[in-house]
Specification:
Blueprint (H helix, E strand, L loop, with lengths): L2 H20 L5 H10 L6 H17 L7 H11 L54 E5 L6 H5 L6 E2 L6 E4 L9 H4 L3 E3 L2 H10 L6 E4 L6 H9 L4 E6 L2 H4 L2 H8 L4 E4 L5 H4 L7 E7 L14 H4 L2 H21 E11 L8 H10 L4 E3 L7 E3 L2 E4 L1 H4 L4 E7 L3
Parallel strand pairs: 5-6, 5-8, 6-7, 8-9
Antiparallel strand pairs: 1-3, 1-4, 2-3, 9-13, 10-13, 11-12, 12-13
Length: 391
């Protein structure tokens, strides 16, 4: 592919990404992969170059662009050499006088007032930096030092004692340590959420919004003699946990829930759970460096729905915790409404509950919890709070 053809391919992919964010479709990564699956003529250098163009354009465009062409025109305004490719054979049509380009920026204007006060404008560029690849060592079966020796160029993560860090775009799917279940891909921030739970052997642990089970696996590695139940309302996501648990040598029960009947389906865990982890559905604003098009998917209406779901899940979890037990609330969000504000409203509704310090390194105090940010902690953005039910 010529440079001009690569630029046209990026525009076509971006058109699909924009449509997908409008219709709640697949992520940009999947769209790029699908695009080249049907274009076998593109070599590995072509695919890599087009992918880079696509994600540079996404990171630059703060709001959902009118089109892929508008996104690439914005990129070309910053990289003038790209403008020369417009009008070349197999490339984009020549630019028209007055043609609009996408607006550059990091945080959509309507979200700025909702950010935690800790996330000041000087931190915004880091929200869109390329993220490293973090691995969590399965400490039930291996040590971090053993795993560091197996991954040349890896470094220990600064905050999680379970983590090792590799450069972006590292591939580990075929690595023997991954295939043997000795490591899992997990951002250091997610590892710290599991560490905040302080899971104890013999305890009953419930991961209420388990998804594909990354944090359930971390809990199982830290407390291999605990009883762990992973639940979710999404069958496809939850079904991914069983093979992962088998590979890791972990014993984790799964249970598919049917909202709004969760409490009925969890009657055997009601007031009998030592720890409930609520890693709630959220805006994902803390993961923009991995999913920068997430900014385009979020709307005020969607944020309202997410905040309502978080509140409902917190109140549900409170029913499951035993006297003296803990509830750990986490969101991969930098918005006060989803983080500190949500925890504060919970404590207003449940005035006898006690807010506890989270036993993790890093982060900064934010209301009843702690906030991790890419700029301050070099992790994805997370809010985490630990709440105790009185005896």
């Amino acid at each position: 592919m010529t440079p001009a053809a690569r630029l046209q391919a990026a525009i076509e992919i971006l058109d699909e990404v924009i449509a997908s964010t409008t219709n709640d479709g697949p992520p940009a990564d999947s769209i790029v992969t699908r695009y080249f699956k049907h274009r076998r003529y593109a070599g590995s250098k072509d695919r890599r170059a087009v992918r880079e163009l696509v994600f540079r354009a996404i990171r630059r465009s703060v709001e959902r662009p009118e089109s892929g062409r508008a996104a690439v025109l914005g990129l070309a305004e910053d990289e003038l050499a790209l403008l020369d490719l417009f009008g070349e054979p197999r490339g984009p049509e020549p630019r028209i006088d007055g043609e609009r380009s996408a607006i550059a920026g990091a945080v959509p204007q309507w979200l700025v007032p909702q950010l935690s006060p800790l996330v000041t404008p000087d931190e915004w560029p880091a929200l869109l930096d390329r993220a490293p690849l973090d691995l969590r060592v399965n400490v039930a079966r291996a040590s971090r030092d053993e795993m560091l020796a197996q991954f040349p160029g890896a470094e220990p993560t600064a905050l999680s004692p379970w983590g090792i860090r590799l450069p972006p775009d590292s591939r580990i799917d075929d690595h023997p340590a991954f295939q043997a279940g000795l490591v899992e891909v997990q951002d250091e921030g997610s590892q710290l959420i599991a560490l905040a739970c302080e899971p104890a052997n013999g305890a009953r642990l419930l991961d209420l919004c388990a998804g594909a089970g990354g944090k359930s696996l971390a809990l199982a590695a830290a407390a291999p003699e605990g009883t762990i139940l992973a639940t979710d309302s999404n069958r496809a996501r939850l079904s991914k946990l069983a093979p992962r648990a088998q590979r890791a040598g972990a014993t984790i029960e799964t249970r598919l829930l049917n909202p709004p009947r969760e409490l009925e389906q969890l009657e055997d865990w009601r007031s009998a759970t030592d720890l409930v982890l609520v890693d709630a559905p959220c805006s994902g604003s803390g993961t923009w460096r991995r999913n920068p098009e997430g900014r385009w998917r979020l709307t005020p209406e969607r944020l309202d729905r997410l905040a309502g779901a978080q509140e409902r899940l917190l109140d549900l979890a409170a029913e499951l915790v035993c006297p003296g037990g803990r509830l750990v609330y986490a969101v991969c969000s930098l918005l006060s409404r989803e983080g500190a504000g949500q925890a504060e409203r919970f404590l207003e509704r449940h005035s006898s509950w006690i807010s506890e310090d989270t036993a993790i390194a890093g982060g900064r105090s934010d209301g009843a919890g702690r906030l991790l940010t890419p700029a301050h902690d070099l992790t994805d953005g997370f809010f985490v709070a630990r709440l105790r039910r009185p005896c």
